[in-house]
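Hey,

Quick one before I head out. I ran the complex with DLZ overnight. Inputs first:
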Amino acid sequence: MASALHNLSSYDPSTVPDGSEWKIGIVVSEWNEDVTGALLQGAYDTLLKHGVQARNIIVKTVPGSFELVYGSAWMARQTDVDAVIAIGCVIRGDTPHFDYICQGTTQGLAELNRKAIVPVIYGLLTCNTLQQALDRCGGALGNKGDECAVTALKMIQYGRNS
Ligand code: DLZ
C-alpha cells in the first residue's frame, strides 16, 4: 500500500483478533517523547479496544530508540508477554547519526524477530522532520501506535494458528 496516503489508523476492526487472553509488552523510547507518548497512547487505546485487559499491558521505557533492541529482547525473554511492541521516533539531524540509529535499531529488531521468541512489532518512526513525525502519531496520517497494536494481535494469532 502506498504510504503517502495511507492512514495508519485505518483498518477493518472485524479482522482483528480478540486480545482478552493475551499479554502485550510495550517498550517506549524517551527521545522525542511528545511523539512516542502519543504513539504509546494510540497503541494502548487500540489494545484496550480489542479486548486486552489493562493489567495485561506492560509498559517500560528506554532512553533512546537504539535501546529498543535490548529493551525488547529483555521484555520477550524475561516476561510472559505474547508480543512486544517497540516504539520510537528518530528525526534526522545534521550528521549521519540518524542513519546509524535507524539501521542499528531496525536490524536489531529484525534479528529479534528471526529468533522468534515472540513477535516484535516495529513501531519506529524514521522521519526527516518533526512535522512528518507529528503527522504519524495522531495527526494527518493517523497513529502508527494504532497500527502496531493491530499488528501485534494479528501476529499472536498467526503464531497460534500455525
Ligand atoms: C543520540 C540520538 C539522536 C541524535 N537522535 C535520536 C532520535 O532522534 N531518536 C531517538 O530515539 N534517539 C536518538 N538518539 C539516542 C540514541 O537512540 C541512543 O539512545 C544513544 O545513542 C545511546 O545509545
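The pocket of DLZ is lined by residues 29, 31-32, 63-67, 88-91, 93, 97, 101 (CB under 6 Å).

Talk tomorrow,
K.
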